[in-house]
Amino acid sequence: MTITNKDKLIIFDTTLRDGEQSPGVTLTVNEKIEIAKQLSRLGVDVLEAGFPVASQGDFDAVQRIANEVGPLMVGREAIGKPITIAGLARAVPADIQRCYDAIANAPHKRIHTFLATSDIHLEHKLKITRDECVKRAVAAVSFAKTLVTDVEFSPEDAGRSDQDFLCTVLSAVIEAGATTLNIPDTVGYNMPEEYGAMIKYLIANTKGSDKVIWSAHCHNDLGLATANTLSGICNGIRQVEVTINGIGERAGNTAMEEVVMAVHTHPDFFPVYHTINTSLFFRISQLVSSLSGMVVQPNKAIVGANAFLHESGIHQDGVLKNKQTYEIISPETVGANTINLVLGKHSGRAAFRSRLQELGFGELTEEEFQVAFNSFKTLADSKKRVTEQDLLALLSDQVSSSAGEKTTYTVKSLQVVSGTSFATATVQLQNTQTGDVLIDAAIGKSGPIEAVFLAIQRLVGKKIHLLKFDITAVGQGVDALGQVSVKIAEGSANGSSSDSEDSVTETEEDKDAGLNKATYHGHGADSDIIQAATKAYLNAINRLVANESKRILGERKVDV
Amino acid sequence: MTITNKDKLIIFDTTLRDGEQSPGVTLTVNEKIEIAKQLSRLGVDVLEAGFPVASQGDFDAVQRIANEVGPLMVGREAIGKPITIAGLARAVPADIQRCYDAIANAPHKRIHTFLATSDIHLEHKLKITRDECVKRAVAAVSFAKTLVTDVEFSPEDAGRSDQDFLCTVLSAVIEAGATTLNIPDTVGYNMPEEYGAMIKYLIANTKGSDKVIWSAHCHNDLGLATANTLSGICNGIRQVEVTINGIGERAGNTAMEEVVMAVHTHPDFFPVYHTINTSLFFRISQLVSSLSGMVVQPNKAIVGANAFLHESGIHQDGVLKNKQTYEIISPETVGANTINLVLGKHSGRAAFRSRLQELGFGELTEEEFQVAFNSFKTLADSKKRVTEQDLLALLSDQVSSSAGEKTTYTVKSLQVVSGTSFATATVQLQNTQTGDVLIDAAIGKSGPIEAVFLAIQRLVGKKIHLLKFDITAVGQGVDALGQVSVKIAEGSANGSSSDSEDSVTETEEDKDAGLNKATYHGHGADSDIIQAATKAYLNAINRLVANESKRILGERKVDV
């Protein structure tokens, strides 16, 4: 089968909205902007930046992305226009207005509004009739249309909605001006064949279906998000809602790199083409993994560490004449070849700057550049081979700890003694606000990292609950950078935990008590794992201190 | 669509053969036996235990699995028969005989033989004609049939073979007595629709196709292994070749848990049923991850840490009356509910023993039980909440370091001093063979773990190349167990590395020099990350010392 007239496949990235709903993931505004810049450079068509009505923090993030990333053309020369910034809004005027206010400055902007259409949602959650549902959907789209030309509508819980009623709603919103219709498989239950058949039915039975772009939004609960999305494409889907590394709630969303590479490697099978710069996939995968703390397993398709490693001898067999068919994707195509490139220890500033540019960090201020260069030099002193992967980890670290939040505490010195029984840490912190230098020590029964955390707790005079603690190694040597990511919340002064004095890990009671508390994410990278943990913990504490007076409460996450 | 007459879906697990071909994974015989026992208990029908001709080590592992796991009935009462032990063999008499010798003692046994059928392989690799190919395939199956009744044949590179020639080969091997025909998508290139169509065509055009079981073997390079396998099932496949966590070369094999749960949740869609005890999935996933060192990403379908975590509020919404449809898989169904269960610090031996039984470690000797109980007590002293997940990590550790290999070195004491500049480690080892106690110290520029490794190198008097170093945290607190896995090889005395004196990580030159060297895997778990690293390193060194005189050379991995 050869397709002659191909449509462009629109890549709608929701790493910053649905991806950020992954349990335990909280990105700062700076981290979101860095990811958004890289997504723009990758060639993403539409970027869902957040859910502006959810909180002031979400609003600010979407607004800054619209202002700072919305107009960028770097890396998009072939596409010829900047990225479209989308914001999510429930089908109510206040949400839609708030969404518009956040994205207003982007040259290309989209309002993405949604309303449940299944009877179970209408009756039990929204408590409205089907007629009222159609009216609300039309009202929402009509209002959005007065603000922007580009309006997307999602019927929430489409999979369990009556298909003919769904066609009625969809016909009505097209009439009202919707330009994209997105069909979610919210619970990840569909088989590829079923999802494709549903798309086909909806397109065939919705009035005006040829005037809009149909979009797929799948979840990976059975490991089928990619297959479902591809089945959608074969049945009329022209926009795919995806995330980098497939991150998202539960088992995640559809992985962008898998869908794009399936289309890329099967030009004769799919009726679409894409305009993604696939050679950036490996790097952006690493960046998102670092910043989100969501590990990519070695056997992950396309971007896993093993994806291009061949253990058996057969693949190197030079007699195979048709290499291209055998090696379905070359490492270069997704940028897997450069990730382990060694950076010369004696690299000068100019060489380093040009490497940063290649990595998409060309827009650092002079001060930021100097910080990055110093980190590189320090690492190069302790490590034989500094790779591009190490550099990405350092840069992620810098993005996370940089500007935006004021840094209250910095480590002046750290000393750890540990052995076969227990560990002692002595930590000296400087309070940059007051100039005070504080020093104290603590014992850790579970090793040196616990000792350091307990000493820091004493110094900052707070009871901190550690909600999450993850370690991963970047690269392969003993001098591999260790990356630690932590999530913390402040405990009550009269800690309900029976053992609160010398505890850093939450108990069940803490968990209950902490349900409505703000949580803070921190991460750190260092070739010394204890230093990495110290950086991560202090990074999170600095955020806690900075935000102490502006806690954000209330529900802010939605399911689409 | 309701299917009334269902066939049983045969689950063929190849975690120990194709899964073990994951880059960096090397399982010891003890580790393989433990995984095999758990797979038998899970309800796997056929277990591919290895490739006996590849090396003496592979032969021994397959033979011990055939002898020790082959007859087990624990957990298989509903299935009514023990697991079938399969071995892989090229289509040559020596391979087939060697395979038979390894599996001979299993009550149910299978020889799995393979031969390439694509022209490109025939011409360039095997240098034989199509006629010769048919002859060899028939000869191999006929010979295998004289040894066992259960013979599986795989046409390697089926995807690129001429389909009609493939039918000729397959018809001939059925005639010769093959009972299962396995169709691999070796390079993971097929779209689900294409793979399903190929299966349909082969079944329709192969003589005697109704007399055999058709099997699917897919790879995950585009993230479609599960979808391809399921498409196969819809088109006549009745055996699936899968691995736990989808481990395997490059992006891995089809994940057993995904295929089984797709079938499980769609009883009206698939014409098959399964007899897997799905409630063991989470535990076996953890065990395989621990022993193989292959991390499972949090957003992995079915067995990822987040797979059953809901971040948004909607899912807890009590108004949804139809919980079963909404929550497509309950955590209990795959055993995700018990993994974080806390084990009482004051648990006695009886309670502990019954917990071990639940975890499938009921057959420990009294001595092994005592070691496990002591580890548990030690951990419970340093950690508030010991979970089932921690216990699995401890047991994995014990499996890895236990019997089979003699332990030459044990740590008597360890002292580490580290801080913001460099680290010093003092290590005291006992050589259990000679009774000598050795002590030395070293400096680590990259932190305390490097210091410990360098001190150990001095004590054992060897130059060790570290080929792989991975850290992961089990669980969520700062007292989470850290798991470290390492891979090492011995360096040449006159190390080619310019910096060999104080180096533990391989250089490019080391890599070249080490290509034909035996490598040793080690792992360790401890709530103190430095202790975990020390255990892992010494575990690997003990294996190196034990195997010093019996290095196994030569290619041992194949692509099917």
Automatic annotation (TrEMBL), chains A, B:
The keyword Metal-binding applies. Gene3D superfamilies: 3.30.160.270, Aldolase class I (3.20.20.70). Residues 499-511 have a biased composition (Acidic residues). Residues 491-518 are annotated as: Disordered. Pathway: Amino-acid biosynthesis; L-leucine biosynthesis; L-leucine from 3-methyl-2-oxobutanoate: step 1/4. Residues 9-282 form the Pyruvate carboxyltransferase domain. GO terms for molecular function: 2-isopropylmalate synthase activity; metal ion binding. CDD domains: DRE_TIM_IPMS (cd07940). Keywords: Amino-acid biosynthesis, Branched-chain amino acid biosynthesis, Leucine biosynthesis, Metal-binding, Transferase. InterPro entries: 2-IPM_HCS-like (IPR050073), 2-isopropylmalate_synth_dimer (IPR013709), AIPM/Hcit_synth_CS (IPR002034), Aldolase_TIM (IPR013785), LeuA/HCS_post-cat (IPR054691), LeuA_allosteric_dom_sf (IPR036230), LeuA_bact_synth (IPR005671), PYR_CT (IPR000891). It is an enzyme of class 2 (transferase). Its EC number is 2.3.3.13. GO terms for biological process: L-leucine biosynthetic process. Pfam families: HCS_D2 (PF22617), HMGL-like (PF00682), LeuA_dimer (PF08502). Belongs to the alpha-IPM synthase/homocitrate synthase family. LeuA type 1 subfamily. This is 2-isopropylmalate synthase. It comes from Linnemannia gamsii.
